[in-house]
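Page 47, continued from p. 46.
Same chain as before, 760 aa.
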Amino acid sequence: MRVIGTSPARPDAWEKVRGRPIYAGDLALAGMLHGRIMRSPYASARIVRIDTRAARALPGVIAVLTAHDVPRNEQRMELPGRMAEATAGAVLATQPVLAEDRVRFQGEPVVAIAATTPEIAAAAADLVEIDYEDLPGVYDPIAALAPDAPKVHDSGNLLRSWHLRAGDLAQGFARAAVVVENTYRTPFVDHVYMETESGIGWIDGEGVLTLRVSTQVLEHFRDVAVVLQIPHGRVRIEGAYLGGGFGGKEDVTVECLLGLLVWKTGRPVQLIFSREESFIGHGKRHPYVMRYRTGAARDGALVALEAELISDSGAYAALSPWVLLYSLVTSTGPYRIPNVTVDATTVYTNNPVASAYRCFGSIQTCLAYEGQMDALAAALAMDPLALREKNFLRKGDRLATGQVIECEPMLAETMRRAWAGLAERRPSRAPTRIGRAVAASFSPYGRMCWTRDSASAWIGMELDGTAVVRCAAPDVGGGQTSSLCAITAEVLGLELDHVIAVGRDSHFTPRAGTTTATRQLLMSGNAVLSAARELRRHLVGAAAALLEAAPADIELAGGHAFVRGAPDRGLSMASVVKGATGQGRPVQVLEKYDAPSAPTIDPATGQGKAFNDYTFGTHALEVEIDEETGRTRPTRLVSCFDAGRIIHRANAEGQLEGGAVQGLGYALMEEIALENGVSKNPHLADYKIPTSLDAPEIATVLLESGEGLGPFGAKGLGEPAMTPSIGAVANAVSNALGVRMTELPITSERVLAALRAKRA
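Result:
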C-alpha cells in the first residue's frame, strides 16, 4: 500500500486551518429574506388561536405562514422501503412542519416568518398572537405506560417494542453461583455541534428549488418535495461544509421550513437557528432506564441475562424504533451468554424529541452490561479483566440473536493493549482517590442488513491524467472525502493531489445515502473501490496496447504506467488517458455497491441477522476523585480498536480521540435539565461540555485484522469509538469509591452522595 494507511493532509485541511470554508450560514444572495421560526414555549398545550394580522402588516414582512399554508404538513425522513418492516406494529407519529391544533413538546415550530431583515422578522414574531391552553402531559417514560397516563397521541404512548429470547432463562439462573441486579439510567443529552442548523434557499433559472444546508443527508430533497407536493426532481440539496453533526443533522432540521419559505415567497431566504432554538428544537439522545439481572457460574462463565430497556422517544417517533433495535442487539455486550431474555420498549412523552446521536442506541446498553461485568467480578472475587476474557465473543460464536460472528473480534487483544497503556498505577492519597477500569464494547457499522443498503460512485479521468470522484457522501468532518480520494489514488497509482472529489450535491453526484450509522466507508468506500478497479482495468488495457505488453505486466504508480521490470518503458497517465480515448476505451466508470442483505429479524424473539458486521474495542481509563468536592477528573485514557484496515491513519486516530472525549462529557457533565418537559438549560452558559482542559491524556492503539467488510478489509470507527466511554467512566469511579455508580451524569453531587451513603 502506497497511500492506504498513511496520513496525508486532507483535501480541506488548509481551507479549515485558514478559516476559509463557506458554511451554510455564510452565503448571502441579493434580495435575500431572513427566516424566523416561532416555537411553542409549552410542552403540552392546545393551540386556541393564532392571529398574524399585525405581523403581516408590518413593513418588510413578506410571509407569515402557519400550518394551513403547508401543502402537506408532515415532516419525516423518507427511508428505504424495507425499513418499514422494522416498524411493523409501531405507531409512527410524524411531526408536522408547523403545529396546527396542539403542541407536544417545548420548541415545536408553530409559525414561520420571512422578512427583509432579521430585526423585522423578530419584530414580526413579537406581533403574532398565539393563545395556548395547557393540556396534561407525561414526562416520565415509565409513567407513560400506565393505563391512565395522558396520551401524547390519540393512538397511545407505546411506540415500539422489541424482544430477544435465547435459551432457557430459568435453567440459566438455576446454574448461577452469583446473580447481580442493577438499574441503570441515562439522560437526554444534546449534540452541541459548533454550527447550529442553518441554510439558504433559492429558486434557480430552471424553477428548481435549491437549498444549501448543513446536513448529513442529501436525500432530504425528497422530504422537502413531499411537503411542498412538487416532483422530487424540482428540489436540489447542496451540502455545505458541516460544522458538526453527530447524528443531529440526520433528521430534517431547516430543510422543510426553509423550502416552504422560499417556495411561498419566490425569494431567496436564509434560515439560521439560534443556539437556544437548536437546544429545544432538534432531536436529543434517548434517555434510558435499564434493569439488568445477570448470572454467572462459580468459574465466571456467564449463564443468564434478563433485561428490560425503556427509552423515551419524546413527542414524535423520529428514528426511535431503529435506535431501540440497536439497543436490543447490543444489550448482551460482546459476550457469550446462552440464556437471554430482553424486553425493549420506546414510548412517547411530552419531552424533547429523541432521535439519532452518535452510537445510536448501542452506547446506553454499554453502561449497563459493563457495569454488570464489574459487579459480577466483585461478587466472584475475580479479576474484572479475567472475567471478560473468559466470556468474550470469538470468531464462530453466536450472538443471542443467533447471528454467527464471522470475523475475529480481537477483544482480548484490545483489552490487554488498552490496560497495558495505562502504565503503573499511582497510589491513592487522601483526599484524592484513584480509580481504574476497562469497558469493552461492540457496535454495528452500516445499516440494518434487511434494508438492502446501497451506494454509487463515479470516477472519471481528465486528459491531464487526474481523476475526479463523484459521490454524494456528505463529509461531516470525519474525513470521508479524504478516504475516498485515498482509495482512488491507491488503485489507480496516482498521487493524492491528482485526485479530486466532488460531492455534496443531490442533482449532480450519484446517490450514496446518509452519512450516518458508520456506513460511509463501508458503502461509498466500496463503491469507489469498485469503480476504481473497473477504471484501472480500462487504463491498464490502454497502456498495454500503447506499450506493446501484456495487461498483466502493466503497473500503475506515481501517475505513470510502465512495464513491470522495465521502468524505462513507461507513459504518463495523461498519455494513457489520451490513448484510451483514441482507442475508444471508457475513461469514466459508474459503479454501485450493494451491502449484503438478510430478512428482518423476528420482533418477538430477536432471532436473525440484524447487522452485517461489528466493530470491537476497549477503553481503559484512570480517574482522580476529590473526596471533599466530589470532582472527578479523568487523567489517562487508552482507546484500542480493531480497525480492520486503516485507510487514513490520522482520521482513524482522530475518531478514537474525539469519540473518547465526547463520551467523557456524556458520562460526567452533560444533561438536558427538564421540568415538566421544559428545558432549564437551553444555552451554553449552563449546558456543559468538555473543553481541552477537561480532556485527559489519550493514547490510541489501532489493530488491523483485515477482516472488515469495508474496502481492503476496513471497519467503521466513527460511532464505535465513543461506545465504551461511559462504561469505562462508571466502572473507574465505582472502583475508586467502592460504590456502584449506575446513573449518568456522574456529577460531583452524585459522587458525594455515594460517599455519604457508603459511610452511613
